[in-house]
Design brief:
Radius of gyration: 29 Å
Distance between the termini: 73 Å
Shape: globular
Number of strands: 0
Oligomer: single chain
Length: about 350
Amino acid sequence: MVQDVASALGHPGVPVLTLTRVFTTWRVEPAVLATVVALGGGYGYALWRRDRTGRPWPPGRTACFGAGVGSVALVGLSFLGVYDDTLFWARAVQNIVLLMVTPMLLALGAPIRLVADLLPARMRAPLARLLHSTPARVLTFPLVVTVVLVVPMLVLYLSPLYELTLRSALASGVSGTIVTTTGFVYFWTRFRLDPTPRTDPYAVTLWITVVEMVGDAVLGLVLWLGPLVATGYYSTLARDWGPTLRIDQVIGAGVIWIGGDIVGLPFIAVVVAAMMREDEHRAVAIDAELDALDAARVPTTARGARGRGPTNAMSTAVAPDDATAPPTRLWWEDHPELSERFRRR
């Protein structure tokens, strides 16, 4: 197993990355372990509390959250964590997972709803007011959320901050936390499995996804065709194996560009499925309202017919050709909500 110190300092003693070492090289990183324990333990404790109340929790959400926690361990403790200060593409994989994969899985676990259901009643009202406050609604506005998702990666790779994360474990940890947090805010507000300040249409989410993909493409092209990043650091490693600095950066650019788009595909699938469910629920609600209005109208018609006495069925079926008579209208054309939705064109 590769020693942590050698990996963190980028010593030339870090061995050649082979296919065998991809599966056998691991490290013990206290900060990553603490994060995994905090996330997994907190979610598990909330599940235990919920089970004691007899309220079920969808197992799919638990599986997604567990996979998200596992992804943190994977990028931080596996060969990716060992070689993240040596190979540009290894850190690129780390960052794209922490930005897109980890927060998406965590958001699918609906942790906010899980915890909120266990809070005492006296705490729910203040938190609900805070969640739906004007600052919260502004900060989760779709354009703001998109900027928050795209900008950190651009700043990270196109400024001296990237080299700082290679030289400082603290800077690297802070950077990873920021990337994951911004990703979670994005997926939390887009999935809407948890309570959110806004309920923007899912169509807006699809447009945001397009903007995010464009951002990945821009960053990928800049890294692919632009100058080398952090050459002052990588040139001092004396690495005599693996890809050259240019090829290493080109591979990393492809990971950020193509990898980000590939990860976005399941996200789009989840959003489309949610949009279809929302349309189905809306259609059911409209049908129920139509049925209720129709049922309320039938007794009124029947009472009016009884008051007029017997009538000739043929005479009521065929109306006289009277040019002065008002045009025939369907009942729902006078309904304040349904008339706009179903008006005749």
